[in-house]
Design a protein that fits this description.
The chain is an alpha/beta fold and 178 residues long.
């Protein structure tokens, strides 16, 4: 059996919760080992809720944790670049939620940094493991819908989950970028 992976999660908000639910609920051996949030209190509360052994409010401390095998960036958009660049300097594989950067230049800088460091980097889409998606897949696999020939989908909601999304400096451009 392969070794388990100790994952550092940067961000304890809605997206961080989605990733934690998925990793702890669907992965047999990989676990969130360290969580980083805006405050120590927020990080500790998240860690206790999800049985995560380490917490911090320091992005550097979280990434530089010697036990970290992989970093997941689930932070507000304006923090993606610095987190990915730090992970590349620390030689830690990194997965970044959408959008990768607030603009093409930021995304390109991140790509160049992980390539230069020789590190694995990936881009995450948070809707892959939502309950509605998993239920749809289970229905298809169970044959409840017959033979699927074509699928069209869209996702809508009432708006962003955080006020920072409306700030162009933080978000980088709203729904079109996100």
């Amino acid at each position: 059996m392969a070794a388990s992976h100790k994952i550092t999660l940067l961000g304890a908000g809605l997206i961080g919760t989605f990733y934690t639910m998925t990793i702890h609920g669907r992965r047999g051996r990989d676990r969130i080992h360290t969580v980083c949030a805006q405050t120590e209190a927020e990080a500790e509360a998240f860690a206790r809720k999800w049985d995560i052994p380490r917490w911090t409010s320091s992005i550097s401390k979280a990434i530089d944790d010697a036990d970290t095998d992989l970093v997941i960036v689930g932070l507000p958009n304006n923090l993606h670049k610095d987190a990915v660049l730090h992970a590349a300097r620390a030689k830690k594989p990194v997965l970044c939620t959408k959008p990768l950067g607030r603009n093409g230049a930021e995304a390109w800088e991140m790509l160049e940094a992980v390539e230069k460091a020789g590190m694995f980097a990936g881009y995450l889409e948070d809707l892959v493991y939502t309950p509605k998606t998993l239920k749809s897949l289970a229905s298809v696999r169970a044959g409840a819908l017959g033979r699927i020939l074509w699928v069209r989908s869209r996702e809508t909601h009432s708006g962003p989950h955080s006020a920072w999304f409306w700030d162009k400096e933080i978000a980088g451009g709203g729904a079109i970028v996100d």
